[in-house]
Specification:
Rossmann fold; 186 residues
Length: 186
């Protein structure tokens, strides 16, 4: 069985998540390849049994490259085992008690895409991402700092390097990837 994991990332979190999913799939005897859709165009998915699309969420949007891939292969995805995941601020919003924001991120990042493209995923993943203030544009950094910088520390998130906060739950991601491997083999 072969899997293709196509992702769009702004600051690298989705890349790391995609690579970890690929590692777990390989442990489960599924050959897995990751592709950063910004760096490489995929022209053919026919050799793959499982397609996974992942995207970071910024300002309520997917990375355009993940959207473009999904549009381009929409009809072919209907014939494949398919999964979808997003990297987001979910863990921070949850700790802040903002269940309405968590629901909105899920709706925009997952549910709306599933409806828009008539997708039938075997599994969806809703993960944390990375806030890396050093990689943001000046305006984005200022906007995000106002809304979240003090909350990151208050809610117990630590800097993993100067200006970068990793919100990912690696156990959750690994468990999801193992579930995905089982569903792909069914």
């Amino acid at each position: 069985m072969k899997a293709l994991i196509v992702y769009a990332t702004r600051y690298g979190a989705t890349k790391g998540t995609a690579e970890e999913i690929a590692r777990i799939l390989q442990e489960e005897n599924i050959e897995a390849k990751t592709v950063n859709a910004k760096e490489k165009k995929v022209n053919d998915i026919s050799e793959y049994d499982l397609i996974v699309v992942g995207s970071g969420m910024a300002m309520g949007n997917w990375g355009s490259e993940a959207e473009d891939f999904t549009k381009k292969f929409n009809k072919e995805l209907e014939k494949k085992k398919f999964a979808l995941f997003i990297s987001s601020l979910k863990p921070l919003e949850e700790k802040m008690g903002k269940s309405d924001r968590v629901a909105r991120i899920r709706k925009i990042g997952l549910d709306d895409k599933i409806l828009k493209y008539n997708l039938k995923p075997v599994l969806v993943g809703f993960f944390g991402g990375v806030l890396d203030f050093s990689k943001m544009s000046f305006l984005t950094r200022k906007a995000v700092e106002v809304g979240y910088k003090s909350q990151l520390q208050k809610q117990g998130f630590k800097e993993v390097e100067p200006g970068a906060y990793d919100l990912r739950d690696w156990a959750e991601i690994r468990s999801w990837a193992k579930d995905l491997a089982q569903k792909a083999k069914e």
